[in-house]
Design goal:
Alpha-Beta Plaits; elongated; four-stranded antiparallel sheet; 31% strand; alpha+beta; 90 residues; 2 helices
Length: 90
């Protein structure tokens, strides 16, 4: 599991916030093996938290998928990535 926290500088509305972060769901939420959701701060303009759960038979595949998500979030999302935490779920 990967939990990402974002700060959205200058964000004026929830509509704008969701527009700026929608690429996360579009890129990672449609494929198999990864579940994605906005997991906190849903009603705040300037903050967001998104969680990703990856599944696979090989732990290296999971690690690679979560690394790709984190890199995409840091480089391609119109928000500042302020925190990235990984958890192993048993």
């Amino acid at each position: 599991m990967l939990v990402l926290e974002f700060h959205l500088h200058g964000c004026q509305s929830l509509k704008e916030k969701r527009g700026r972060l929608q690429g996360l769901r579009q890129r990672f939420g449609k494929g198999t093996g990864v579940a994605v959701c906005e997991s906190d701060h849903q009603n705040e303009h300037g903050r967001a938290q998104w969680s990703f759960v990856a599944t696979a038979a090989d732990p290296k595949v999971i690690e690679r998928a979560l690394q790709e998500i984190e890199e995409y979030a840091a480089e391609s999302v119109d928000a500042e990535l302020t925190s990235a935490r990984s958890f192993e779920l048993n």
